[in-house]
Amino acid sequence: MIQLDQLQWLKIHDFLLDIEKAWEPKGFCTQVMAKLHMLLPYDKARIYIINKNGQISYEFLYGVEKRWSENYLSYYSKIENNRYSIFRNSNYANPEIHGSVTDWDNHTIDEFVTRYIKPQGIKHSLGFTLYGDAFGKGIFCFDRTSGTGYQTKELGIISIVHPHIQNLLRNSFVAVTRGTSHPKNPDSKSLLTKREHEIAELLYKGVSPINISNQLFISLSTTYRHIANIHAKLNVSSRQELIIALFGYFQDGTNLTLT
Questions:
Q1: What is the CATH number of the domain that holds 64?
Q2: 104, 137, 172: which is the final residue of a domain?
Q3: Do 120 and 51 lie in a common domain?
Q4: Does the model's pTM come out above 0.70?
Q5: 220-234 vs 209-216: helix crossing angle, rounded to 10
Q6: Do the domain assignments include residue 38?
Q7: Amino acid 6: pLDDT
Q8: How many domains does the chain have?
Q9: How high is the pLDDT of residue 259?
Q10: Less crowded by CB within 10 Å, the N or C end of the chain?
Q11: Considering the domain boundaries, does residue 95 fall inside one?
C-alpha cells in the first residue's frame, strides 16, 4: 500500500468533504474536477457525461479550446478502429475505473498523437470513469503540458479517492423522473447579491479585477472584497475553482440566486 504523509491524508479528507456539498450530479462532477487540482495538479481537463442512450449529455472543458473537443468528437474519436473513443475502453478517453496514465512522448506515433495531442502541448494524461444511475457515466481526463508526469504516489491517491467518489455519486443522487428536478441548494452561502452576481459574470467572461472596477466605477479594493465574498459563498479557494463553479451557472443560461 502506498505511504502518504499526514498532510496528504488531510488533503484527501478535505477533498471528500468538499465534493459532498454538491447537490446535483453535473455540479458534483465539476466539483470533483475543481477540487482534485489540490491533490493532482493539472493544466487541462475535460469531462464528458454520456447518458444511457450513448449520447453526450454534458461537456465541460478547462484550459481546452472548444474546437479541439469538436474535432475529437467528430473525427479523432472514430479513427484507429475507435481506439481513442470515449464510447469504448481506451487508455486516453475512457480509462479503467481506478485511473490510467498515458505518457504521450513515449506513446506509439499515430495520427491522433501527431495531429491532436502534440498540437495541444499535452505530455501526460490521467483519466478515470464514474458511473451513476442518474446520468450514465462520466469520463474525466486530466492533462499536463509539462514534462513532469503523474507519479506513483499521485496514482495511489487516485486509487484511494476514486471508490469514495464513486460511492458518493451512486448513493447521493438518484435518477430524476421526467418533470421533476432536484431542489436548489438551500445553503444561504450559495446566494449572491446583485452586485456580486454582476462581478461574477464579468469574472466568468475573463474581465480582470482592475477592469471590473473601471467598468462598474468602484474602487479596486471594493472589487476584491466582492470577489472574496463570491469565493466564500461559492465555496471556492482559487480562480480556477471559481471559473469552474461559474461555468455551471452561466453556461446553462441560468442565474445565480440573488438576495
A1: 3.30.450.40
A2: 172
A3: yes
A4: no
A5: 110
A6: yes
A7: 83
A8: 2
A9: 43
A10: N
A11: yes
Query: Residue 219 burial (CB < 10 Å; 0-12/13-18/19+)?
Result: exposed
Report the C-alpha gap between 137 and 22 in whole angstroms: 17
pLDDT at 97: 44
- Overall size of the chain counted in residues: 259
Return the closest-CA partner of residue 175 out of 7, 25, 22. 25
CATH number at residue 201: 1.10.10.10
In a domain, 259, yes or no: no
Q: Are residues 110 and 17 in the same domain?
A: yes
User: Along the chain (259 residues), what's the average pLDDT of each consecutive run of 10 residues?
Assistant: 80 85 78 89 93 88 92 93 78 48 94 96 94 83 92 90 86 51 42 88 86 92 84 73 70 47
Same domain, 219 and 97: no
**To 5 degrees, how large is the angle CA 94–CA 95–CA 97?**
115
